[in-house]
Every structure is written in structure tokens, then in C-alpha cells.
Amino acid sequence: MTVALVPVGASAAGGDPVNGRLVVEKWCALCHSISGVNTDPDRAPTFEQVANRDGRDAAYLTRIVHEDHFPMTTFRLFEAEKRDVVAFLLTLQHEKP
After folding, report:
1. 13-65 confidence digits (pLDDT tens)
2. Residue 28 is inside which H or E element, if any?
3. Could you give the CA distance from residue 1 to residue 37 in angstroms, rounded to a whole number?
């Protein structure tokens, strides 16, 4: 039997992080890359950078996927997709000392 390891925060978000990655790859990749350090001032920060800023917990990320935030294009995701995106973002968080 194979067991998938999902960070505690991701399961707390109530979404599917695997589907969340698919959603961001489909809708968000024009502006955000997933990992690394973005050095291009014309691109949005990477999702890894976003997820690791101070105060970025499940509640914050849930709120932000429900709000329009300029200059980001407004995508109308289904509620389950929003939960999945939050769960995915939480998997990108590094352990903090």
C-alpha cells in the first residue's frame, strides 16, 4: 500500500494539493512560476515565495484566493479549486526555525 505524505497545513486547508498544482499550472503559470526566485520585475513572485512570506497560513491564503488583487487577472475558480490551490501552496512552505 502506498501512502502519500501531505503536510499538516495542506490537509487542514481541506483541499487536494495535487489538483491545486494542476490548477495553478493551468491558470496561473503565465505570471507565477512555482518555485525558485523570480528575478524578472515583470513577473509575479513565485508561489514558493508567496507561500513563505510571514503570516501566510491557511486562513490568509484562503482569503487571498477569494479576493481580486490587482494586477492579477481575475480567474473564477470553483470553491473546490480554491481549496486545492491553498492546499498546494501550503505544501510549498519551508519549515521555520
Report:
1. 689 999 999 999 998 888 888 887 777 778 888 999 999 999 999 999 999 89
2. none
3. 36
Task: Enter the pTM of the model.
Answer: 0.80
Domain residue limits, the chain: 11-33+42-91
Contacts of 16 (CB under 8 A, 6+ apart): 83, 84, 87
Distance CA 60, CA 66 (A): 10
Residue pair 19/7 in contact (Cβ under 8 Å)? The answer is no
Q: What is the chain's alpha carbon radius of gyration, rounded to the nearest angstrom? A: 13
Closest to 44 (Cα-Cα) out of 54, 58, 30, 55: 30
In whole angstroms, what is the distance from residue 79 CA to residue 65 CA?
10
Between vectors from CA 24 to CA 21 and to CA 29, what angle results, nearest 5°? 125
